[in-house]
Design goal:
This protein is an alpha+beta fold and 219 residues long. 48% of the residues lie in helices and 21% in strands. The strands form three sheets. A four-stranded antiparallel β-sheet has the order 1-2-3-4, with no helix packed on it. A three-stranded antiparallel β-sheet has the order 5-6-9, sandwiched between helices. A two-stranded antiparallel sheet has the order 7-8. The longest helix has 24 residues. The radius of gyration is 22 Å and the shape is elongated. 19% of the residues are buried.
């Protein structure tokens, strides 16, 4: 199966298009600076325009999420880092579904259950772990509430107790937090890793179907 590069970017601009937009922005900035009554005022306007451009680019890049899907692995790329999962370490995947019959059954999350979570925990950088813990906190709370374990949420959300592995190695700190979080999420939802459907370029069901094709192909 061919490798795929997917992104949630609505508009993907080439070098020429980016160059034209940058030139237009520079011209507009220079034009605005001519309304100043002094050289210092002109410089100030140019600096403000430059700051505005930087903030727009920064905010845009923070929201861009990319996925690389190959016959051997699935990889997610975000502004704060990325993670990779080998298909041989995936046991199942699917959409998260609410435990409450009165609620909408499908949740805006796609779950991935791993055969062994340790490789994922070890390869995750601190910045990525922090982002995952914060981003998926609401899902942990929902799972605790729907399973009548809401009183355990405060202990689970920041659980950083050390983890002793079978080989004698110890996991601690942020990696221990991620390990415990994956354990609790598996109890609630049956999955270890989650992808927000808001980060996709297509419907959640369609994305799950695509991943399952690659998972089946790897087997």
């Amino acid at each position: 199966m061919p490798s795929l590069q997917l992104t949630n970017e609505k508009f993907v601009l080439g070098k020429v298009s980016r160059g034209i937009l940058l030139a237009c922005f520079v011209l507009v900035s220079v034009w605005l600076s001519t309304f100043a009554n002094s050289t210092q005022g002109s410089i100030g306007i140019l600096l403000l325009c430059a700051c505005a451009l930087f903030m727009v680019i920064y905010t845009y890049k923070r929201g861009v999420v990319r996925f690389t899907i190959t016959p051997t692995h699935l990889q997610q790329h975000t502004f704060k880092g990325g993670w990779v999962v080998q298909w041989q370490n995936v046991s199942s995947l699917g959409l998260c579904r609410s435990h409450q019959p009165t609620q909408s059954s499908e949740l805006p999350w796609i779950g991935i259950r791993l055969k062994d979570p340790i490789p994922f925990v070890k390869q995750a950088c601190p910045r990525l772990i922090t982002n995952l813990l914060l981003e998926q906190r609401s899902l942990l709370y929902l799972g605790a509430r729907e399973t009548q374990k809401e009183h355990l949420f405060q202990d689970q959300v920041l659980d950083s107790s050390r983890v002793e592995l079978n080989n004698g190695e110890t996991i601690k700190g942020l990696q221990a937090c991620l390990y415990h979080r994956m354990h609790y999420q598996r109890e609630y939802w049956g999955y270890d890793i989650f992808i927000s459907t808001a980060d996709l370029d297509r419907d959640g069901e369609e994305f799950v179907g695509l991943l399952r094709k690659y998972l089946a192909g790897s087997c």
